[in-house]
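# nightly structure sweep
# worker-07 picked up a monomer target from the shared queue
# config: single-sequence mode, recycle default, output format = structure tokens
# input follows
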Amino acid sequence: MTDTGNHPDAGAAAGGASANYIDAGDAELEPVADARAHISLFVPTIIVAILFGGSWCVLWGAGLEETRLARVSLLVFLLAPPLLLVQAFLKYHSTGLAVTDCDLLVAPGWPRQSGVEVPLLGVDSVDVSASWLTRWFDTGTVRIRLVDGDVLKVSDLARAKQMTDYIRTRLRQARAAQTAQ
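# output follows
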């Protein structure tokens, strides 16, 4: 989450931080709080590189570099990490969720490039799901259920639980303001 106080309810975001991954098309939309993808997206790339690079090194050290297993290990080591790195990089730089005074800006990330602007009162509910591993990294998947029945999902979001709690608070405030009118 990016804002001046390093938590969602501290104040306005510094310098339009969400502009990197959410283009609302409206200069007056200033995020109050926003969240981006977590660096843990790069963990599979690192694991694949270590496993296959390490297995090739072990086979090379044992003098078995001419075997099929060594060739497959080397091939996977040379091809998979760069491809996984590109995928993680694209997802990392295109995933986000921002809250403005009256809207949610949702960017589900690569390969789905289209961001969505949703009025707060158009949101029915917000929940977060996280496995034990994603809880360890403090990440999760935020699901936003809209009043019309559609569901928006943002995966691999950093501080997803805190962002979900903040959106729920903003929803309660928006609904209370609407009923007060």
